[in-house]
Write a structure and sequence with these properties.
TIM Barrel; globular
């Protein structure tokens, strides 16, 4: 990680569904305290997978829309207590309804979202990122994971002039995941990256944070369990172990 909507519903209905799922989501993302797991994606294709009590597998190939993880089916099948993560981002190019980016279905649904025309288009981008990633995950046998994590990093494309477009994109992803899946939604990032991309936004419907550290030592990892960047409880802290991403499940 280092580097299908059936009908059009008002946004209020989406929020209502998300609220109804919230209790189950919090429990589902409560990993066994003190346990360790891992996260892998396309860079780990063909290698021996690391061991752990749980794992998170990347759906995309580092960017939304264009690339997907060709090893998702095998990685997901071999991962204990598997969840998945999807790459996120906003770019004006993504608003195009061209068969590869924004879906017509999400564009129609965005008409019920609040905000300006540009913000609604950004919400449709997020809806489409979720829709396309979910469709690919389902095709690879990973359509019913233990949770959906959003990879929110500055390495991907985002608006630097209007953070509200990034905010609407992320909210569109969460709304769509909640509407089409009963699995919980959490966010992977760091405090610096989160502030740079969305400011101080607390995403409605998301229930947990997964903190990236880049540390090559386990020392200090548990202390990061108090380092929430979006206001949600920190469930996982990522660090490096033997050159791969390992993850510690927080005790509280």
């Amino acid at each position: 990680m280092h580097r299908v909507l059936r009908r059009v519903f008002p946004l209020a209905a989406v929020a209502s569904i998300g609220g109804a799922l919230l209790i189950n989501q919090v429990g589902a993302l409560a990993y066994t305290p003190g346990s360790t797991g891992y996260d892998i994606s396309f860079p780990q294709c063909g290698i021996q997978y690391p061991g752990g009590r749980f794992g998170i597998v990347g759906v995309d190939g580092g960017y939304p829309f264009v690339h997907y993880n060709p090893c998702l089916a095998d990685q997901y099948a071999r991962t204990p207590n598997a969840a998945v993560y999807i790459n996120t981002g906003y770019d004006a190019l993504y608003t195009q309804v061209d068969g590869k980016h924004t879906t017509f279905e999400c564009l129609l649904q965005s008409l019920f979202a609040p905000g300006s025309a540009a913000q609604r288009a950004a919400w449709a981008v997020g809806c489409s990122e979720a829709s396309r990633s979910m469709a690919y995950a389902t095709s690879q046998g990973a359509g019913n994971p233990g949770g959906w994590w959003l990879d929110v990093e500055t390495g991907n494309s985002w608006s630097s002039s209007d953070l509200s477009l990034n905010q609407f994109t992320i909210q569109g992803i969460v709304d769509t995941l909640l509407r089409r899946s009963s699995a919980p939604v959490g966010i992977y990032s760091t405090a610096y990256q989160w502030r740079s991309i969305v400011g101080s936004l607390r995403v409605s419907g998301a229930v947990a944070d997964w903190v990236a550290t880049g540390s090559t030592s386990f020392a200090g990892v548990e202390a990061m369990c108090s380092a929430s960047f979006s206001g949600h409880p920190v469930r996982l802290v990522q660090y490096l172990r033997d050159g791969l991403d390992a993850d510690y499940a927080c005790r509280s």
